[in-house]
Amino acid sequence: MSKNIVIIGNGISGITCARHLRKLSKHRITVVSAETEYFFSRTALMYIYMGHMKFEHTKPYEDFFWEKNKIDLVKKFVNKVDTKNKLVLFSDGSSIGYDTLVLATGSKSNKFDWPGQDFKGVQGLYHLQDLENMEENTKGVSSTVIVGGGLIGIEMAEMLRSRNIAVTFLVREKNFWDNILPVEEAKMINRHIGEHHVDLRLETELKEIKGDSTGRVSSIFTNNGEEIPCQFVGLAVGVSPNIDFLKNSGIETDRGILVNEFFETNIPYIYAIGDCAQFKTPPNGRKPIEQVWYTGRMHGETLAKTICGQRSAYSPGHWFNSAKFFDIEYQTYGVINAQQKDSEESFYWEHSSGKINFRIVYDKKDKTITGINVFGFRLRHEVCDGWLTEKRTVDYVIEHLPKANFDPEFHKQYEPEIIERYNKQSGKSLKLKSRKGLLATFLK
Amino acid sequence: MENNPSISISNPHPSGVDIIQKTGLILFSVGLLLFLIASTGTGMKYPVLLLSLSIGLSVGGAFIYFFRKYLTKSAGVKNDQIWQNSLTSRGVFAWLFGIFLTGFYIVIYWFPSVLENLIRLMDPLSNLIRGNDSDQWFLYGTLYTLAIGVMGVKALLKYRHSNYQIIRTSSIIFFQLGFAYLIPAVLQLFNQPEFYFSYFWPLKYDYLFPSTVNYLTEQPGALGVFMVFWGAAMIFVATPILTYFYGKRWYCSWVCGCGGLANTAGDPFRQLSDKSLKAWKIERWMIYSVLVFIIITTSFLWINSYYNGSVFGNVSGPFANTYGFLIGAIFSGVIGVGFYPLMGTRVWCRFGCPMAAILGIQQRLFSRFRITTNGGQCISCGNCSTYCEMGIDVKAYAQKGQNIVRASCVGCGMCATVCPRGVLNLENGPLKGRVNDNPILIGNKEAKLNL
After folding, report:
1. How near does any CA of chain A get to the CA of B427, in Å?
2. Does B427 touch chain A (CB under 8 A)?
3. Which terminus in chain B has less CB density within 10 A, N or C?
4. What is the ipTM of this complex?
5. Angstroms from A325 CA to nearest CA on chain B
6. What residues in B contact A385, CB-CB < 8 Å?
7. What average pLDDT does range B404-430 have in this prediction?
8. Nearest CA to CA, how far is A112 from chain B (Å)?
9. What fold does the segment set A122-176+183-235 form as a domain?
10. Domain range annotation of chain A
11. How close does chain B come to A140, measured CA to CA in Å?
């Protein structure tokens, strides 16, 4: 029997779900979004501002894709969900009925009720509309303040620096992103931020935003009482689920939409995936709310199976993530805690340039690895994932590290230096046992 | 830029072009001006002085500008403002520059007399390295080599964080300067046939025409015979072997002068190639049509030559001339380079070059080369596709975790260079499993669905 499936949100979660649904079924699929007509890569917004790409380049599929795959796109703003009559109500007064509803509405930028946060020139960065505002708000400005030491904060700093606009970067923590990164890594990024002439203020918080007579921001005050003149303030203090429209809908929410491991909400045939979903019982080692591109994709993949009759619990593999901080690429595989646990030990190597490093965390007792952090060079996902699954020991991984090397040809290899440092610290005399490259991967 | 908070003397927030860069630009412009003055003929009295000053100042000025621009910033991807700049985003300046380039090609191919004074300006250099006076092709070759050299240095600075780009760009400059400029010139100096050891049939289509083969083999000494042997061996023996091991990149983005110009002078325009499925369809029709055209042309000529003209009579000659005019001149030159600022840099390589077609067939069917993608790490940002000069929608593969095995890929490596998540890598490996049509993105134990 053909179902009428409505997906609210055309981000990575909703779209992945729609694509998998189409692959698995002949159901009618409608994707609703007020943000854009077509799916685009939110992670690429910064590159539009920087001039690396235009908006059209960030669309993962050509426009004909949707009609060809019979995925209906509706560009409307959802006001309400009427769960009793199975209707989605739009702001223009129209509505659409559904048999199955998927909520994939993503996030909105946090604001913490700072005095003056509604002045013109104060904004977050999440939606395409935010990018358009940022373009407008930063025209002709010379000095700006970014608040929040996470991924969006450093992206905004990089965006502004690409136009030679002065940036003061307020970070509440001791080091950049140090609730995720161990201190050495965090400090490395601190230095790199400075290299790009960003005035990084650690352990500094926003206290108040001041405006001029036109209602535009003119300065901010920090918690240290310092006044910093600026014409733009970027608020990048995290995001939270975008679920205001679900008030009084009967769908159970907390910070996000509450779901079980099948992405089922408290109401039958209504599911939530991506940034807006909150697991009542998170999968082992995971957070209740996962706001990452990759997890959004996995949510969409898994839910599509459930809707098509193969009820599947969310069962993510080993954690992985990546980012880029100005010029330094970052990849992580497995779990690396910012604060090392008592049961863990870790080995850390940093290149003399101070821009490349490698960390491996392993179990104190049986020496099996639990996580890898790498900055400034690239590792092969498949190999790292395999090591975690096979519960390889730290010695094994260090010896076979070149096998995971994913840097382009002719790039300098750091494995000899890494193993030398490891031997020195551990008193062992390990030798590299594999080579870089595809042939080595195949031939072992 | 009012209210600049900086009080330091070396402003950490420069508003674009600083005094040193401006100096470079002034020197560059003065060099160009001298070149223009020389072209009026009034400066013909001092050809050596004017030639060396105009080239010296413009090259020196460009170097100062580029060194200052790139070395003051930390090494990394430097694509800021490309789509906001008129010249590099099909704006007014792009159109002006495109028309200028196209016009230049038309003039140099069919109205060289207009450039007489500039050609004469080259006489001192031409006499020095070739032993005879300059002609339009020497002028063209010199400008071409200068463009690859100067913009090659710029590419080296811009991509200095990538050893692959450094070595590849150096190779391009080396082959252009040595194999496509100095060696042919020196051959002439020693009264030998002008021969390009880095170009082969069917790109250099006349190298296997009976007339060229006869001309070369009739040369005194063994060099001419060697040239014929070299040309034939390179396309029929070396090309399949090298392409098997390394893909078509060993030629298209490391050796070839057309690719060389695209990857240096053309680098600011690489993002303009059309990535649509439609463009890919047109590409496949066009490039293989040109290949068929040149194979038929060459066969006609040989059959005709063998039977002393008794089979095709006078048909094969005009056939070859048509190819030379339509494909050799208009397609590869006027459109291929003239349209850089509008259609991107590899229009010829992608839609027309029969050498690229042959290499592409080999690369697609039996080569160990592929671009691998990295598990589930792609974020579909689109940088790879945008900066693919061959118009391949790289991200379409990367976001599926699929290897990229495409006939058109020239292996420039730019997708891997601009990827912000370490997803793409040019690799050579076993043939088996190279085309993985049904990959599975790593990360989700539940998703075993192939899309």
Report:
1. 6
2. yes
3. N
4. 0.95
5. 9
6. 375, 442
7. 97
8. 28
9. FAD/NAD(P)-binding domain (3.50.50)
10. 4-108+240-308, 122-176+183-235, 320-441
11. 6
Average pLDDT for B84-110: 96
Q: Which residue has the tokens 């009609």?
A: A67
A195 touches chain B (CB under 8 A): yes
B272 touches A: beta carbon within 8 Å: no
Domain A320-441 falls under CATH 3.50.50.60 = yes
A85 touches chain B (CB under 8 A): no
At B20 the pLDDT is: 95
Q: Which amino acid is at B353?
A: C
**CB contact (8 A) between residue A326 and residue B421:** no
pLDDT digits (tens, 9 = 90+) for A168-183: 999 999 999 999 999 9
In chain A, which residue's Cα lies nearest the Cα of B414? Answer: A408
Residue B220 confidence (pLDDT): 86
Contact A234, A123 (CB under 8 A): yes
How confident is the model over B380-395, as a mean pLDDT? Answer: 98
Measured between CB atoms, does A316 come within 8 Å of chain B? Answer: yes
